[in-house]
Structures are given as C-alpha cells and as structure tokens.
Amino acid sequence: MLNNCSLFGAIFALLSALSCCSLAQDIIGCGGFVKSEVEIVFSLIEVKLYTRQGSLKYQTDCAPNNGYYMIPVYDKGDYTIRVEPPPGWTFEPQSVELHIDGQNDLCSKGEDINFQFTGFGVIGKVISQGQSSGPAGVTLTLKKLVGEETVKSTTSVDDGAFTFERVLPGEYFIEASHSVWKFEKSMVQVKVGRETGDAGSDLKLMGYDVQGSVLSEGEPVAGVYFLLFSSTVNPKIVKSCEQGDVAGMPHREGEFMICFVKSQKDGSFIFPAIPTGSYTLVPFYRGDNIFFDVQPQQLSFSVEQDSVLFKEPFVVAGFTVNGRVLTSPNGQGVASARVLVNGHEQAVTSADGTYRLDSMRPETYTIEVQSELIFFDPVEVKISPSAPQLPDVTASRFSVCGHVIIDRLPEGMGHSTQSRKVQVESAKTGIITTGTDGEGNFCFRLPAGTYAIKVMLSSAEEKAGLRVAPDVIDFTVKDQPLDHIKFSQFRATVSGSVECTEGCGSLHLSITSLGRSEERRVVMTSEDENGKTKFSFDNIMPGKYKVNLMNEEWCWEEKAKDIEVVDQNLNAILFRQSGYILSCHLSHDITLNFAQESKPGNVGSFNLTKGVNKFCLKEPGVYKLTPVSCHQFEQETYAYDTVHPSQLSMNAVRHRVEGRIVTQESASSIMVSVKSSLSPDLPPSVIGPLKSDKDVPAIKDPKPKTPVSGPFTYKYLYWAKIGEKLEVSASSKELLFYPETVEMTIMGDACPGDVDEIIGKRGVFIDGLVTPALADVAVTIAAKGSEDNKIEVTSDAKGSYRVGPLHSHTEYDVSAVKEGYVLTAIEGKQGQFRAFKLGQISVTVTDQAGQPLPGVLLSLSGGNYRSNQVTSDQGAMTFSSLSPGQYFLRPMMKEYSFEPTSQMTEVLEGTTGSIAISGVRVAFSCYGSVTSLNGEPEAGVYVEVVGLHKCSSSQEESKTEPDGSFRIRGLQPNCAYNIRLKAGEANQHIERSVPKSRILHVKNEDMTDVHMIAFRRMNQLDLSGNIIGSEQHLNTLKVHLYRESNPDAPIHTVSLGSTNFFYLPSLTVDNQNYVVRLDSTLQRSAYEYNLSEFTFTANTTYQHFTFEFSPQRKPIEQELSQSSFLVLPITLLVIFISYNYQKILPMFSQSAASLQSLMSPSKPSTVHQSSNQDQYDADFIAELTSVSKKKGKVRKA
C-alpha cells in the first residue's frame, strides 16, 4: 500500500509540473499579470498583441480579481504585447517585444509577462463646431483651480484629443488657445481622484479662417463679392461674416447662401471663422447691364480641421456675350455645335442652340460653327460691352447620306469597283454626282429643297443582269439631315420541302456555292398551314449550289442536291426520309441483344466491337438494348428511342474479380475487406460473412451426421474498375490469415481473373480486467520490442476487455491509460490493472447551434497549477490530475465570443466538476496559399487583408507556412477586404504578386482557395558588349571591369580573340558604380587610335556597351626611316640562310606550323583577377562559341 501511495504522489507531482507549461497544439499562450500598488479597476485595462508591423492580432481584458491575462498566439514570429489602459494611465513597461519561436521565448517557456501601474492622467478633446472631433495643434494648459498655477502644457493630436500624464489628485481647469482660430468655449474644469480625470468634449472651436485674393492684370481689385454656398452647413451657425442677399447674385440649386465678404484694397478677402464642411465659393462682379468674368467662376473646397488658404488668386478676365445657332430662321436650335472664334473653339451650344462667349474684349470677330451633319457659313460680327447679344447663325446646307449594297457581281463580271457613282438632281442645284466609298456609303451636302437620286450602272452590268432597287428615290430636304437612303442588289429565293416518316420537327439545311468561295448558309425548317415541312434560302446570287440536309440521326434517299440559280426563284426541292441511324459507342467488345418494345417479335443481337458502331433502323419506336459481357456496365439495359436520337454510349465501369480463402477448420465469421486505391480515404468494402463450399442446407434426417473435415474453401466476388489497385485482407473472430493482404491491379480489356489464395489459421486471445470496475480505459497491445501494428481497445462497464485472435508465436506488451486516473499493472496477471482516480474538471464547449466546438483554448489556473489546452473534435476537454482547490477558467478562440467569459470553480479530491460553455462565431478566416510562378510554395511571406468602406479600420495578417499555405483569422462578416502581399520590410525579397490585390466579400462563412503568385526580386546584373571597327585587330583588344572606387585593380578582364562580341561575369545588384574600359596591345609608334570607357551603376538586371575601335597606321615614310637601320643585318641574314638552307628550311617549316596553330582563333579567353571568381552563364558561353564559329567561316571564305 505504501508503494502504491508513493507512486500516486509522484505521478501527481509530475502531471502538475507538466501542466504548468503545457501548451495547446499549434497555439502558444502568452500570459501574466497587471500589477498595482494602489487600488485600480483591472477590468478597464486591455492587453493587446500586435505584429511587428503594427497589426492588431488579439486583445483581452484582465481578470477583475488579480489582473491576470492570457493571449493565444496562433503563428510564430515577431510580436509586441502592449498594455492599453484608459487614457492617461501609465505603466512600466508599456510594451514588450517578443520573438516567438516555440522554444526560447518567454511565452514558449511559460514565463509571466507583467506590467506595473505607475499613475493616472487627465484626458479630453477639443472639437470643431458640429463635429465629434477636432484639430491638432491647439495648445492646452492645465492649471490649478486655486491659485491658477500652471501644472502642465500639451498640444492636441489629430482628432483633437489631448492627455496630461502622471497628474496628482486634485481640482484643475484646462485652458485652450490658438494664434488664429476662434473658440466658442475655451475653458473647462476637471477633477482627478482614483481614476483618470475626464474633461470631456466641452472645449469647442467656432471655425477656421478661409483666405484668398483677387487680381486684374496683376493689380489688386477691391469690391469683388465672394459668396459662400453650402448644401450641408446651416447658415445660422456662421457668425463671422456678413449675411443677406447681394443684388443680381446667382442662385445655386440645392445650396444655401451662407454669407459673403468683399475684397479689400489690397485685393485680399477673409472669412474669419467657418465651421467644418463642404462649400462652394462664387466670385460676383458686375457693372451696368454687363457681367464681368472672374476666373475661376466657382471654387469648391472643404474645411476640415485646419485653416484654408487659396494660393492661386482669382482673376478678372473679361465680359460675357450670348448667341444662338439655328437650323433655319426661326427654326430649331442646334445642340452640341462647336463655336469657333477667329479659328479657336470657344464654346459648345446647349440643347436649345444657345451659347456664351466668356472673357471677350471689344473688337471684330469671325464666328464659325461646326456640327457633324449640319453646315454653316462663317459670320463676321463686332462685339462690345454695349452690344452683348450676337446675331443668329443659321444652317446653309444639310448632310444627305445613303448606302449602295452590291455584295457580288454576276459570274464573269470580275471584281466589283471600289466606287460607284450616285447622281442627285433638282431644279435648284441641277445635277450633282458623287462616288461611294469602299463600303458603299455616299453623302451630299444639300440646301433645303426637293431632289431625285439614283445609282449609275454601266451597260455591261445591266446586260449581265445586275439590278439595283429601287431605280430612283425622291426626297425633300427641310431643316434636318437625312441618312436613310438605301439601294440594294436583287437576290433569288431557293425553297423546298422535307418528307419524314413520323414528323420532321426542326431540321437544319445548308446551301454552299460550287465554284465560288462563298460562306455556307444554314436555315431551319418550318411547317406551313397544311402541316408540310418547308425551308427557304433568301438573297441567293445566281450560280451553282449544293443544298445539304444536316441530319445525322436519320437515313435519307438523298441527303444533298445540286441546283443552279439563273434569273428566277427555285421552290421545288424535295428531301425524303428512309429510316433511323443507331450510333453506339462501346468501351469493350460485347454481344448486344435488342428488342422493339411495340413489336415483341422484332428481336435480334449483334456482336459489337470496341469503338463506334452505326447501322440503320427502318422502323420507328423504342428499342431495349442489353449488353452481355464479363464486364459490368453503367446500366443493365439501355433504351434507344428513334424519336429522340442520340449516340448511345456504353462504358464498362467495373470488372469481375474472384478470390478464395482456404482453412482447415470451419468458420462462420470470415469477412473480406477490399481496400481500393480509388478511395484511399474511405473505409474498405466488406464482403461476408462467407460460406464454405461444404456448407449444406439443414435437412431433417434421423441418421447421425458424419463430421465434415477440412480443408474448407470460401469464395468471394468483387467488381473493380480499370486501373484500380486492390488490397484484399480477411478477418475472423477465430482465425488469422496468411498473407495478411494480397494485392491486384486491374488492367486491360479482358476480365481480371482470380486473386491470390489466402490461408486461414486459428489464433490466441488475451482476456483483461481493470479493478475496481472502470469503463472506457484505453488498452494498447503491441508485440514486444515493436511499435508497429498496435491494437487498441477500451474496457466495458465491468472493466473487462478481450483482444484476439493474436499470433500464437509472439509475446505481447499490454498497457492501459485513462485521463484522470493512474493505472498500474498487477504483477503476474497479464492484462489486469488497478485504477486510482484524481480530481478533474470536464469542460464542454458548444456553438450557437448546440454543436461541439473544437479548437477552443481553455486556460485553467489555480494555486501553482496552470494549463492551456484546446478542446477536441467533440468540443470537450478534461483537466485531470487536479489537486483540491479553486481554479479560474477562461475560454479563448479567435473569431468567437463565449458565455460565460470566465468562471471560478472548486475541485474536491476524486471528484469531477462539469462546466458548459457556449460560443458564438463573430468573425471568419481566409485560407489560401502563395507560390512562385512554377508552383513552388513560398514560405515566410506576409499576407495582409485591409478592410474597405465601413470596415476600413480592420487589418489582419498572416505568415505563410513552409508549404506556402496561410490562414488569416478575424475577418468580420458583411465586410469587404483587400487581400495582398504586405509591402515594406516584411517582404523585402518579393518584388510583386499576381494578382496585385483581390477584393474579398466576407459573409457568414470562411473563405477558401485564395491563391497568389509571388515574384522574387532579381539580384544579378548581366554584362555584355560589342566592338565596332576592323576585325583584324580584335585579337589585340581586352575589356577590363573596375570598381570606380578602385580604378587600378580590375575585377574581371576579357580578351576579344576573333569575335567582336563579349560577355563579362555577372555582378550582384549592389547600387555601386563600375567602369568598363577598352585596352589594346597595338604599338602606339605604328598606329593611332582612341580607347573609350563607360561608367555605370549596378542597379538593373542587364547592361550592354558598344565600343568603337578603328586604328589608323601611321605614314609609310616614317616606317621606312625607322626600318632603314635594319637593311644591313637583314642582308647578312639572307646570305647566311642561302648557304645553309638544307638545315634551316626544315626547322623553319616546323616553327611556322607551330606559330600558325598558336595564332589560330577559337573562342575568347577570360582572365579572372578577382578573388571571388564568377562563372560564365552557360547560355552566354554557347552564344559566344556560336559567334566565334560564324566569324571563322566568314574569314575562310
């Protein structure tokens, strides 16, 4: 007993220690305390988790009794935990930076992260009139209420909020001030006690100044009215400018007149205090009977939370005159006409033909009007301020347009002319002729009157039968353009009928020209009043054609007919049906039996082959088709109806597989499991129980039965698919089978045949017991020394269990576990255990539909015990091995809220406490992946979603896993988000993505399959170049690459050899400056030449350089003068060679051959003088070799 108690205590201590730092799978808990030496309200304090980029990932409040908090972290990475109390409260530290890697950080090690409270504050807000927020930049001074001693000063931030930190308890007042802005209320009192003092939003600004100026030819103008309008601001709240009407001022639809000011002598104007809102500023300046233009004529602007200054002045530009454009005197106005003044467009007419010319000055102008279909003569007018009305401009001519349609000339006429003449005639204008364009369109510009128009045809065209209808068209031009005149070519109609056995329905026929490349035309049949099936082709040109009946389901006496169209319609073409086509596509060879349902005697069969089989059925009706084969088809029988013809497809879906099991003993519980490769995630198919070949029906017989002896054979049948791989195994309550599995793959068109034979043999059993009786104990049986093929069972209500059959020649280890219990094996009794129970808490979490909610993080703490665990797929979690005491439980799961949010519970020894928690889904997730263009996963890429519209304050992000997948949690329902790869330092290695971004519309469900392709930044610069000049000196050239900072030490050197093209080794894109320099070994004494160089920055992926090298030989006189000194030595050398030529000539020949081989060009060589020798790209070497070979061929020629 003592040994059992010691074991119990040791195990309890171990479990308690492990649970303190235990973390849920894939979730890391970050927790600790908010501490204070004075009494504060912990429930007002929030602790938030941010990413290093500033995105909020999770937030929680503190436990009201002790300030404890717990934050679940779903993704490893860099984070910041920040305490966020009410405004004005201060803590040390304010935040803690974390690099969560699952091992070495504070959270992964289970250590507390604590925040210490250090003081209260005073908060408040300066607001703009009519707004809930205010501007930045207002000076706030905190003064003692008694004595008015200044305590602190600060400045408001963007929304007008301000904070005074670390303020002692007492009574104060706050004074607001600004150098320009006027206040409606500038002081407020505040009291600081045991919490932050709140000054509220009583400090209120009256408005903001709006300033500008007005000039005329660079000089200031006084007395110009500036009228302020708004559709949203109430004029009654504006008190800083003059209100009322100005004589002759313009009225604006939908806007209120707020107030106005006048410009001063210096041309400036100012509205001292205008509330926030949207406004329109209209300048207004007029004299007697004339309106002067001030530009711009209106200016829309908004007053936000700051002063408004118009940097560009208003300008007095000129005066305004009006005019009209009409179709005729007293006629309609011409809309959208362009009005040109002295050749420059100045206005466009409105719907009634009126227009206005702004910024005009006294002088004579030429006015031209341009309209698309109406034409006008230029008009000269004199404009002055005393005559601001212009004379009417009326139309002189109108556009008359039409179309001549001649698709094709008759046979033998050749090609159609590009243009045809069209003639129009009237008593007013006489005869006017024009030509059509390439499309057959024509147009005239005609004054008002009555006309006759016709198309001119040549005598040859008329003789060949070309006709245009109508011959002549009469029309009248009044005051509008005409565009409906149309001439078309004569065409014939080809028609006929179709006779069918049982009604034709809708059939299609085509007509195709013979001898001409005309497009084929298709029509559909219709029934006339007598029920006959008719067809008709319209607009047929004369010529020979083939009419084809487009029906592949029926048989016909003639399916196509040849016809010829001459000069009249054809209407007697007849097609007659002769039967029905049966088309059958087979996946395997079969015998097909068929019978006609309406005629039982009409029975037959066909031996059909794999593929498509076609034959004609004379009788209409429904046929029953039955395939006979060793294959199983999609249907046992097929029906074919001649009324609804279609190709019949018969595909074998399964194929017969047979197998057998042989045993020496009879067994009634043999089952066969067939695992298919086509459904690896589904349970195997089960066949059985099987009967042996020696099983006989029970017969009443008084004679004693002779015992039946083995062997016994059990057969089974399975239908498999082509390509399916089968794993067949057998099972029984009494037997074991060898081999354990047999495999077979179904291939080919023939029947698969038999599966390998399986042999059954009798096994052994283990009977176990748990005392005291305890149900649901998990018992594991495994062969000694092996972790494979474990068998797991659970005990029943009596604590007993049975395992078998097992292999008789193998020894087994038996172990048992149950959460909340310690189970020890009873020595000498295999499979028997004694159970001891600890205290535990059982938690069940369900969703709003009452279904189990898995994956919820449950944080349980009490005394020295802490544990963070997630609920199972059944929504349950049991905290076992708990010592007696009180425990605090908090459920946490991103995207869910819970009721209750936390709970205190007490645990007694050996008891189980139950807690039920309900969760409600309040947010959703986005699942997706990021890959490269070739489909490889991109790990470590940050993906973010940013809320749009009403959800613009929402932002979430995630980092991709090694397989490129990501999950972004916390998306709010009924929100739209923009998903993209995060910009900035987070993804420095990513250049762009496809798509760049995508809009997600979140409903009440998760979003899946969001895929993005990431493109990495290129980090290599390739260098190439070429030489322009004579090729005979290329072998004297070298190209050097230097760093600009070290021009004396080349990084790389390339010799040109025989090609004028070169490559340099690649550089890293490092934004450094480099120099490429050309060098030659030619003697300066013999040649004159220039060597160039290029400087570049390594900030792109490719650079190419072109050098010019054209050396010039120096004058011959200089060469002769230099070579004259060599005449005597050369003469002596020639005399010596002539006397000894038999010895010298062979040596000379050998040396010449060696020299030639050395000078023979191949490919350029490269000298690497840098310590980090780069290798040439294989493509560059191949191209360089190709260029060298080509050059060699040219030189040989």
Automatic annotation (TrEMBL):
Residues 709-761 form the NOMO eighth prealbumin-like domain. Keywords: Endoplasmic reticulum, Membrane, Signal, Transmembrane, Transmembrane helix. Residues 762-836 form the NOMO-like ninth beta-sandwich domain. InterPro entries: Carb-bd-like_fold, NOMO-like_N, NOMO1-3_2nd, NOMO1-like_9th, NOMO_12th, NOMO_5th, NOMO_6th, NOMO_7th. Residues 582-653 form the NOMO seventh transthyretin-like domain. GO terms for molecular function: carbohydrate binding. It is found in: Endoplasmic reticulum membrane. Residues 399-487 form the NOMO fifth transthyretin-like domain. PANTHER family: BOS COMPLEX SUBUNIT NOMO1-RELATED (PTHR23303:SF14), CARBOXYPEPTIDASE REGULATORY REGION-CONTAINING (PTHR23303). This is ER membrane protein complex subunit 7 beta-sandwich domain-containing protein.
